[in-house]
Amino acid sequence: MSQTADHKLIRRFSVIVIGLVLLTVVLIFLARSLQLEPDVDANPSKRASAEQRIKPVGGVRVGAQGAAALAETQAATASAQSAVAETDGEQVYNGLCMTCHDAGVADAPIPGSDQMAQRLIEKGIETLVTNAINGINVMPPRGGDPGLTDEQIRAAVEFMLP
Fold it and tell me: What is the pTM of this model?
């Protein structure tokens, strides 16, 4: 190929590339002008939902306002802990344990059954309580509730015994 033929090819190629770029820009502006902008004020529930999703998780409070917020949080935590501490074995069992133990899921002993009495004789209450605290086989530690105290676990085990 000669040098003039090369220049013609490069010129034609350049014109085609520039034409495609201009066509792309025109199409982008055309698409943007045809796109409908959503009216955020038309649907108040969408606005409220968006505000709920983007609101801050927490905040910083200082001075008297911070001290009041801290006292309120500590009081709520103390009342929640005292409510948890007051639960007895039956409440713990009914709230968590009965899901698996009433149906005997994965060979979980059914309360009051011969199987439960057999395990008590074989292992003793201390081993049963330790297994309930640490988990055994497919049973998770503390029955899946890490907030339960050792005393609550013991009360639930004792409630299950025949």
Answer: 0.47
User: How buried is 132 (Cβ within 10 angstroms: 0-12 exposed, 13-18 middle, 19+ buried)?
Assistant: buried
DSSP tally for the chain: helices H, then strands E: 8, 0
129-147 confidence digits (pLDDT tens): 888 888 888 888 888 888 8
Architecture of domain 87-160: Orthogonal Bundle (1.10)
Residues 6+ apart with CB under 8 A from 144: 96
Measured between alpha carbons, how far is 106 from 138 in angstroms, rounded to an integer? 7
Which pLDDT band, with edges at 50, 70 and 90, does 55 fall under? Answer: confident
64 exposure class (CB count in 10 Å sphere: 0-12, 13-18, 19+)? exposed
Whole-number Å distance between alpha carbons of 86 and 67: 29
